[in-house]
């Protein structure tokens, strides 16, 4: 493969990876706090095939997202709802990694991405009060 075609393929692959990350974020947001949804419903909402949704769920599960799924007439996929915030301790390198990922997706691509970006950026600043991402009652 010549250099021009290799660059084109790499760019296309990067674009597809970015679209996948954006879609997976949307998938989690669709399921967060929602009732169980069918794969068909999720595919329609995301504008992709049911197989793509199944692959995305599998990738996210492998990454640790605790999806619950069931088969049958009332089957579908859900994400357990938590009503409390969890405190997470991250070092500077971990915060930077998350900010870099959010910058790739677009820090304003969704309300949750925007909120996460602001909290992570504030955690790196020493001249402003810390943003509490701990427990909220």
Short description:
This protein has 137 residues and is mainly α. Helices cover 57% and strands 4% of the residues. The chain has two domains: 3-78, Arc Repressor Mutant, subunit A (Orthogonal Bundle), CATH 1.10.10.10; 82-137, no CATH class.
Structural description of this entry:
- Helices cover about 55% and strands about 5% of the residues.
- The chain folds into two domains: about 5-80, Winged helix-like DNA-binding domain superfamily/Winged helix DNA-binding domain (Arc Repressor Mutant, subunit A, Orthogonal Bundle); about 80-135, no CATH class.
- With about 140 residues, it is mainly α.
- The termini are far apart.
- It has a two-stranded antiparallel ribbon.
- It has helices at about 5-30, 40-45, 50-60, 90-105, 110-125, and strands at about 70, 75-80.
- It is built from five helices and two strands.
- Helix 1 (about 5-30) crosses helix 3 (about 50-60), helix 2 (about 40-45) crosses helix 3 and helix 4 packs antiparallel against helix 5.
